[in-house]
Design a protein that fits this description.
Order of helices and strands: HHHHHHHHH
Mean pLDDT: 77
Radius of gyration: 17 Å
Number of helices: 9
Distance between the termini: 61 Å
Low-confidence stretches: 130-135, 140-144
Largest sheet: none
Strand content: under 5%
Number of strands: 0
Length: about 140
Amino acid sequence: MKTEPQVNVKDIDHLGIIAGIIDEIGIVEIIDQELGTHAQEKVSAGLVVKAMIINCMGFLSAPLYLFSQFFVGKATEHLIGVGVKAEHLNESRLGRVLDIGNLKKTLGDLYGLRTSVEYGFRQCKQELSWTDYRFTDFQHIERW
């Protein structure tokens, strides 16, 4: 009897481009270097911030206790990092990262990276000729 191979399909939508730009800029490494890592952590603070950025760029707004639901059905190992699963991105882990004292300063110093991410996405969009996809209204970015 022949068994058919098991296929597990997960989507990444436009978030793959966002994750690639985040990786290229090195946000995860910068945050992990500034805040440090702990051997017992399944997901580092840098990866949690990367997940928050990806969630934000996913055009959804939900309370923290629903954060991990955003990543259900998505290829988290490709988007965020090897071994990262949706259940690792729970409200408890997000809360611990957000409570880190110098995270605000670190992210404040990195605030200009949002512009870099969106600029890089705009370049990719232009090169790929995506005419049916609008990323954001750049007037709102200037006021933000």
